[in-house]
Each structure stands twice: as C-alpha cells, then as structure tokens.
Amino acid sequence: MVLSEELRMKNKGCPVPRTRGSIIIVVLVTLLLASFMIMKFMEASSLDLLLAARKADRHRLRDDAYAALELTLAVMAEVKAIDGDKLYAPAQGWADPYTYAGLAPREGVMVEITFEDESGKLSLPKIDQNKLILFCEKQNMLTRDAQRFADAWLAWTKADHNALNFDSAPSVYEREPLPHKVPQRSPRSWDEVAAIAIVRDYLIDAETGRLTPFGEVFQDSMSLYSFGSTNINSARPGLLTMAGMDEYQIQRLQQFNDGTTPPPSGTLPFFRDVKEAARIAQGYADYQYFGAEIRCLRVLVTVREGVAVSRLQVLLALEDGVSLPDITAAPSTSTTATGYWGNTSTSTTATNANASGGGNSATGAGGNRNTGGRNTGGAGNTANSGATRGGTGTASNSGRTTTSGSSTSSSSTSEQTLNYPFTILEILEDNGPPASADENSETDAGVGTTTAAPAATARAATVRSTSSI
User: What is the C-alpha to C-alpha distance for residues 462 and 440, in angstroms, rounded to an integer?
Assistant: First the structure.
C-alpha cells in the first residue's frame, strides 16, 4: 500500500517525503552525547583516582623515608661509638648507610641521602662584637659600616649591650607604628632579621625584598642554633676568610673536603683537628674559631618511586646544649609601652618553652608526632611541620617499643629502649613536587639535587649518597 501510494503521488507530480535517514541521525546524536558524558566522567574520575594513587604513594614512600632515616641514624651511631665517640665528616665512613649496612631499598625505589653540616657555620647566639665586625670587614664592608651593623645586631640580641648609635637603640622600636621591645636574644628565625633596625638595610633589598649579596653570604655563613666551634671539615668560605685565608688556601681546603684532591698517603680524607687542616691549606691562618667535630647535622632523605617523591629533613644535635635561643619573657611582668594612644600597661605571665631546642625539638617515641621549625634558606621563608617515629629518639627521651602479654589473670610488659646519641631538633616532611631549578639555585647549593655545585662554591658540608635497586 505504501509503495502504491508513493507511485500515485509521483505520477501526480507531488514530492515524496524521505524518512529513511532520520533514524541514523538520532542514533549518531545519541552516541555523540553518550561519548561526551563518558569523557567527562573519565576526566572527573581520573582526578580522583590520581589523588588516591598519590595519597597511597605518599604513605608508602613515607615509610621508606623513615626507614632510611633510622638506618642512617643507626650507622652514624655505630661509627660514632667506634671512632672515639666523635663524628667529623661523612668521609668517616657513614656517607652511604645502605652500603655500610649491606642493605638496599625495596625493589623499584631509589633513596638519596644527603648530609649538610649546620656546624660548618658560625653560631649566631655565641657570636660577639669582634667576630661580627671581623666577618663584615672580610666581606669588604667598611669599618664604620661593620661597627654600625654589629652595634645594631647586639642591641637587639644582648641585654647588657649599650647601643652606640641612636638609630639602633632599643627605644627606637617603641616609637615604630607597632611599638615593641627588643627580645634581648638571638633571632629564632630569619624572618626576625627583617625587624632589626639598620641590620635589615644591609641584609635585605628594600625594593625587591630579597637578600642582598652580603645578606646571602651572611645567611649562608651563620646558624641560628647555639653550639661551639665551627667544623673546619665543612666551614663555609665566608668564615674561612675570617681566619685570614686567601682564595688559594680556601680552594685547597675545599677541594680536599669535597674529595677533588686525594688525601696524602697515610692520612684520612677528613680532619680530626685544625692542625691537619693547616697542613693542607698551607700558609698562615688563625684557626681559633674552628674545631673539627660535627655538632649539628641536617640529614635529607629523598625517596623516589616512578614520579612519586617523598622528602624528609631532620636536624640532629650531636652534643648537649645545641638549641635555638629560648623564648624568654619580658624582664618584668609589668610592661609599659609608649605608642600613639599613650602609655599602655599590661601584666603578662610568661611560659618558657625549651625542649631540647628552644621549643623546636622533636623526640622520637613510637607513633608520636611533634612539631619542629625549619628555616628554608630564604629571607622570610620558614616552614613548620614534623613527625617523629619510633627509633629516632634522644638520650633523654628515646624511642620505646612495648610488648605486652597475658596469662590467665596476670600480664607482663617488656620494654626495649633505643638510645641513639642524638637529639632531633627539627623534622620536616615534604611530599610535594620537586623544587624547580631556580629554587635550588636560590637555596643551599647541591641540597636535594643530583648535581654537584661548582668547585668555587661547593660546600664540603654537602655529601650525597644514592642507593637503589
């Protein structure tokens, strides 16, 4: 009937309607919409899957990082016990903990362990006026500027220092837009330096807010932590100039420390005292500010599995007394500040926080998480984060493993204590993307990277050990 009707309409000259392609069009449109919805769903779910995978990688690599840290601490403790209870440099035998212990990371994982000797710097809490002026003068600062810089610094950090310049007197800070008093202690972070009058003019560029060339050398050569003499095995170039060394003496010393120059026959690849360093450096130098032992050491563990990366940074104290300056109260409980609104009196009760590092210590008890502060090497960049795990304890509060069992109505508890001869001052975990080349060049040379710094600027404090399977 349909065919005859079409023939009749065709004979009469009427157009015949075409309906055979409409079904195909509907099917194609449906497929297009379904494909679009599937693609959108895949995009949304792929992000969720990626986040879940990264979270799993982070937890897995975090365990690997802490395992590498505990192995490193164990190797260091053994070498320290064998060699007269002292550590001098990674060349002492603990530069590669995995090789020393005859172990390897799990399959598919690469572990990089880096050491940075914080005691290769000059301790700011222990610095005096003569040292500070000498350091500034060795950095080509005029004597009057060096004296002005030292006066402002000591006016901020020392309670018994009488400021010689009006611009650095403690009363200057009480007339600022936000009146405050000087802490009368050494800074606890590099952020604090920006608040010190006169000092900030030499260290920080007022236009860019970045460190000046002198500020970079100052931050590279100074440590916020309190410890004894500077380790000659890792002394910064800026400090070697304080000893009166010329560029050739500094170069000979650095090439020996970084292994470029082999040690003479019958000698060790590190110094046990400054007399050995004097024989390598040759010429005249004043070593009164230097020793040969590590007092404060930063351990950086980087674990990689494919594109996943986990980093762990730990600052260790190898002797008692290494810490940040205490957070101290005002000299009296009644404080009067003069500001725009007249005199304001407040009564305060201070609480001193000093737990093996001026409030920035972390002792390893199994499963405990503590907070520690870390300076990241740039002006105004401080990151606080941390977690300690069992086995990385201190002599006073060590990691503890407890097992308990019961027999009928009685129970027994046994304890095993790990007495590592170290105190953990800082712990920083970082599971983010790797730092860019620009960031690496702005921070400590060679730290956390796989390329060595140039010989002219390379630090003996940085030693890399990479283990993989």
Answer: 14
